[in-house]
Amino acid sequence: MEERGSISIHTENIFPIIKKFLYSDHEIFLRELVSNAVDATQKAKRLSSVGEFDGDLGDLKVSVAIDKEARTITISDNGIGMTAEEIKKYINQIAFSGAAEFVERFKDSGDKSQIIGQFGLGFYSAFMVAERVEIVTKSFQKDAEPARWTCDGSTEFAITSAAKEERGTNVILHVAQDSEEFLETARIKTILDKYCKFLPVPVEFEGQIINNPNPIWTKQPAELTDEDYKNFYKELYPFSEAPLFWIHLNVDYPFNLTGILYFPKIKNELELQRNKIQLYSRQVFITDEVKDVVPEFLMLLHGIIDSPDIPLNVSRSFLQADANVKKINTYITKKVADKLNDIYKKDRTTFESSWDDIGVFVKYGMLSDDKFYEKAKDFVLLQNTTGKYNTIEEYKALVQANQTDKNDQQVWLYTTDAEKQHAYVEAAQNRSYDVLKLDTVIDSHFIGLLEQKVEKTTLKRVDAEIVDKLIERDEVKESVLNDTEKESLKKIFEQAIANQHMTVEVTALSPDDAPVIITLPEFMRRMKDMSRNGGGGMMFMGDLPDAYNVTINANHSLNQRILNAKEDNKERIARQAFDLALLSQNLLSGSALTAFVKRSVDLIDKE
Length: 607
Prior knowledge:
The chain is of the alpha+beta class. The protein is built from 19 helices and 22 strands. The longest helix is centred in the middle third of the chain and has 24 residues, at 323-346.
């Protein structure tokens, strides 16, 4: 048997065009050819199961072999094979006509992401690395004759008889000079590990099976133990800490989707965790850039999603527009929210102990997705400075009596650094106020979300005002100083401070409050926090000088002493009291700190 011919197309030099277009993804050729071999093998199994093939299936597998001396890569399978007529149909006609259509459509396009696998191009990706390709095949059909197909990258082909005893197909790539890297064992092993690690048929390379044909996401949750899930996580991420918990995805309507998503210990490292979810189609790796399949905030999760409804080769525009992808996106969001809510309800102790690791993720989700917010508002936790956790509703009930201002607004106090703001936290606690810890990278945005969503509630950082003004009441404290004395005291401090960005006022506070309190107004502080964290439109705030309020406690004995001090000593003591206030806010440094220390020694020495 011998047949020679020309593939009937209207576009000349098709293979150089294919190679040029696909060059950036040239390693994909191995995924395509191994996937084809897996399909042929699975077809043999299916035909056997329905009685259309009554031969011995044998040990079904796919093999990949390199012959460096002969400069060949061979992909072999013992699947259904092909007859000479099937070669002409599937290789010469269907696949190549698709290739011709591809060239016409994409030869002037810059979008390479749509190319491989479209229009039946999977097999012809072999010519990205090969100067000549052979197919040696024998069909499973009774009395079928083995056949050989050869093509040198032109439109000419030859089909001849072949010597092959067993059914199946060998695809032999004669590697081109510019693709010698693919004759290296390590290079092929890397590609197989990337794309073929979980193919559903054993894949052999260098005498070893390199894949896991039955990954746990293909099994039913009832078949699996916690140890199975943890071991699979180690297989995926060998250098990561154990996950907190996981979700097993398994849905067949209105789309097909399986997979496992793990909650890692993420803490505040938002950027370091991305691209850890892998997207598969029928156990063939597609990509780890899944932001159009998975909502952005869920990119912080780890794991695998497998859906046959997503083709092997997809473009960004396809993912963004495809209805199934949108449904998958919504479904995954719901499943994650339901899982968290389930853990919260069934085992709140475990949920609270995991909060440091998942809190940033939950808040990010609430900020990113309104539907997720509606579910998460019932289990998001607010931690106070004593370490106690409350949900939003629990916290509203907790502070209702003591932290409602004269306008019937609840005021939630918070700290971004309990140690640095300790004096202010303590002052609030002395009033029996509760103080929340909102100190993660995302909390500057989360604060705004709470004020937007929680009715009749405002949040103030604990050092944004003197404690009496944090929660305004219709209470007026009497001052031991008259108006003239207050004005004199104000002038003394203004001269001692000599800073146009410090606004001085004298106010009647409790004698137990500090003599001088420095605060940065909530609006200014919040804008600066958002600027530091990359808040859109707020970058300019980082360049503005801080405008502080300096509150002088009219009822503190030290300030009364300043008024009664000798004229040449008033500003000196006032400056010392001011520097103490700066010190409590971690605002004293450099020469000002040196002067404060010297002044302190001098004052102590004179005492």
